[in-house]
Amino acid sequence: MSKEEREKLITLLQQSRQEFLESVEKLTDEQWSWKPAPERWSAGEVAEHILLSEGALFGKAQEALASPANPEWEQKTAGKTEFLEKVMPNRTGRAQAPESIQPQGKLSRAQIMSQFAEARGKTLKFAAETEAPLKAHTSEHPFKIFNTLSAHQWLLYIPLHNIRHVKQIDEVKAAEGFPKGR
Question: Measured in whole angstroms, how far is the alpha carbon of residue 139 from the centre of its chain?
């Protein structure tokens, strides 16, 4: 990872963390759990998904690093960084989250927020300190549209996914019937 790539990743991680915190910090408990429709997620469920995804995506980066360097990494991951940067923050295309990162409602709001802070701290520390050859190590994405991603791309996926779901929280807050604040 070049110095510029590291700075970009760290900046995205910090900015997306701030955007997430700002999107939920002033919500009342009623607003946190309100759903625009029975099949849609509440802001709290989206927050839980962001937390669960952070761990899963960081795990995919670690999985990539634990595997031998991919001699075809340049060919297999070419153009994927730009693709991730284009499609992840954009909410026009929707996907069904894997069951492992779907909200289960088993965590309190305080648990979600404290675990998110801890997980993002771990991700930021890793991004700032790693000297591993992140681009040469790859693992497969469960969605065919992405296929092979490098450990670097998995790390970049974290804040881009976060940004995507902050927009989802904003959609919930803008939905008709959203409870009024304090």
Answer: 17
- Taking residue 95's Cβ as centre, other Cβ atoms within 10 Å add up to 10
Hey, is 152 helix, strand or coil? helix
Residues 6+ apart with CB under 8 A from 171: 36, 91
* Domains of the chain, earliest start first: 3-91+101-174 (1.20.120.450)
Question: Taking Cα atoms as reference points, which of 144, 143, 150, 141 lies closest to residue 77?
Answer: 150
Model pTM? Answer: 0.93
Q: How far is CA 144 from CA 33, 106, 147, 149, 180, in A?
A: 33, 30, 5, 11, 41
pLDDT in tens, 124-161: 999 999 999 999 999 998 888 889 999 999 999 999 99
Compute, in degrees rounded to 10, the torsion defined by CA atoms 23, 24, 27, 31.
90
